[in-house]
Design goal:
Elements lengths: L1 H10 L6 E4 L6 H9 L3 E5 L7 H8 L8 E5 L5 E6 L1 H21 L4 E2 L1 H4 L14 E2 L4 H8 L4 E6 L5 H9 L1 H12 L12 H17 L1
Parallel strand pairs: 1-2
Antiparallel strand pairs: 2-7, 3-4, 4-7, 5-6
């Protein structure tokens, strides 16, 4: 990651550069690399995995549409959380849908070999007896406390509105990847020489720019 960012910054002579990425990038190793390289960043936060004291602080905030709360870590990193009614509805819908699937799958309260894995690897499993299972209603209620909450981690000094705006601009990148891989069929690549592969990618990129 860092060599690619270094090359991009140097090639285009960028002075004010901020890395913006979703939660897929947020692990200690990647964040440490960004920090050591001196880069500023705005990343999606895995708020449920925060230390207990921060979790308690987040869940104690009032869920108000458009309101944001900031927690400053000891290393100066800022954790920003916000609430969205639209996100809350989406989270609740996804949760209810998942729970309903669980209720149907385990309506008899038994976990069987067939229900553990449906990808063809059950032949490697031996279950001597079926396992009794129940839906944990307490865990469901605890999870619902997070509905509508979204977190952002940054080491910038940008105001909260800019942090949120910059992060949510990622949809442009996600759309570009989706169109490139889907509509433009950038992959699979049926070329073997480096020159032809580069030409294929270049054509896809030029086409994307013209859309």
């Amino acid at each position: 990651m860092i060599p690619i960012i270094d090359d991009f910054v140097q090639r285009f002579n960028i002075k004010d550069f901020v890395v913006v990425a979703d939660t897929g990038l947020l692990n200690k190793a990647n964040v440490d690399l960004l920090r050591q390289a001196g880069y500023k960043y705005i990343l999606g936060a895995r708020i449920k995995e925060e230390p207990t004291d921060i979790v308690e602080w987040m869940l104690a905030r009032e869920k108000v549409m458009g309101a944001y709360y900031e927690y400053v870590r000891k290393n100066g990193e800022r954790l920003v959380i916000g609430y969205s009614e639209q996100r809350a509805k989406k989270d609740a819908h996804n949760c209810d849908k998942g729970i309903e699937m669980l209720r149907k799958a385990y309506s008899n309260g038994v976990l069987t070999k067939a229900s553990i894995n449906k990808r063809g690897y059950n032949k490697f499993l031996t279950i001597s007896k079926d396992v009794r299972v129940i839906i944990n209603e307490t865990e469901i209620n605890n999870d619902k406390k997070w509905d509508g909450l979204k977190g952002y981690v940054t080491n910038t000094d940008l105001d909260v509105e800019q942090i949120v705006t910059q992060y949510h601009s990622l949809w442009h990148v996600e759309r570009a990847f989706r169109v490139t891989k889907g509509n433009l069929e950038a992959r699979p690549i049926f070329h073997f020489s480096e020159k032809r592969i580069e030409a294929h990618i270049c054509i896809c990129f030029i086409t994307l720019q013209s859309i």
